[in-house]
Design a protein that fits this description.
Blueprint lengths: L5 H6 L2 H27 L6 H26 L11 H10 L1 H27 L2 H8 L1 H16 L12 H20 L13 H4 L17 H4 L6 H20 L9
Length: 253
């Protein structure tokens, strides 16, 4: 470890940090899958209801469970890790804190709204893919701030960390193209036509009903699930009517 001395080394444990990051990613994946489940299954919850319930339970857990724990653990904030009374006093007496709070509140609301809409219109996999572009955008903005605005802020291009981040960006873009079907890997079969139709029961594929069958449409990830459902219902009704008709076009009784 490169730090400011022995105390800095003893206070930091990279393994704990990695485990926390992996645990957070696992919980986040469960959240994405749960959001898709409640919005697309028989429940059919509206996206804004999902956002509101997530905010409600988050507020409840923070107020009832998290804040009491961090308040009773020893730390540098008036003897606690986080002192809610000190936080409230700062909020009441600082206009800057109040402005930052409302800016943060509005930005998080907009972000969560669009994130849940991505899951609602596409699926949780696309939500996870697009969510990874957020830290990349922040990193690029930090580089721009450091080199073109003020070197006291932002992030410097470093070896080898910055190059590893670029490699991660390339892997992310390449994986997105593979998932979307834009890039086809050798050694794998990509069924088309009737063979592809037999695989439409797989939850990992974007299912395109017959009435929307088009090479251009099947490659687009922007088809909404509601449109696909409506089209699939029409296909089902048409097939049922055709099966119910007699050989001369009249309905059998």
């Amino acid at each position: 470890m490169v730090g400011g001395g022995e105390s800095a080394d003893t206070d930091k444990n990279p393994l704990v940090g990695v485990c926390l990051v992996l645990g957070g990613a696992f919980v986040q994946s469960l959240q994405y899958a749960f959001e898709e489940r409640v919005m697309t299954s028989d429940i059919g919850a509206p996206p804004l209801l999902v956002i509101g319930m997530e905010g409600f339970w988050g507020l409840l857990l923070c107020t009832v469970a998290l804040y009491p724990i961090v308040y009773n653990l020893p730390g540098a904030d008036h003897g606690s890790i986080e002192d809610p009374y000190n936080t409230w006093a700062m909020f009441q007496n600082s206009p800057e804190v109040q402005r930052m709070f409302w800016m943060y509140f509005f930005s998080i609301f907009v972000y969560n709204s669009f994130a849940v809409l991505v899951t609602f219109l596409l699926d949780s996999v696309w939500h996870a893919i697009l969510d990874n572009f957020r830290p990349i955008t922040v990193w690029v903005v930090d580089l721009f701030i450091f080199y073109y605005i003020n070197k006291d802020f932002g992030e410097e291009w470093l070896w080898p960390g910055s190059y590893i981040q670029v490699v991660g960006l390339v892997v992310l873009l390449y994986g997105t193209a593979v998932y979307n079907g834009t890039i086809k890997l050798s050694g794998f079969e990509y069924p088309e036509g009737e063979q592809a139709a037999s695989l439409t029961k797989s939850p990992l594929l974007v299912r395109t009903p017959k009435s929307m069958a088009s090479p251009a449409l099947t490659k687009s990830p922007l088809l909404t699930r509601q449109i696909r459902r409506a089209s699939a219902d029409r296909d089902t009704r048409s097939e049922t009517e055709m099966a119910a008709r007699g050989p001369r076009g009249s309905y059998e009784i």
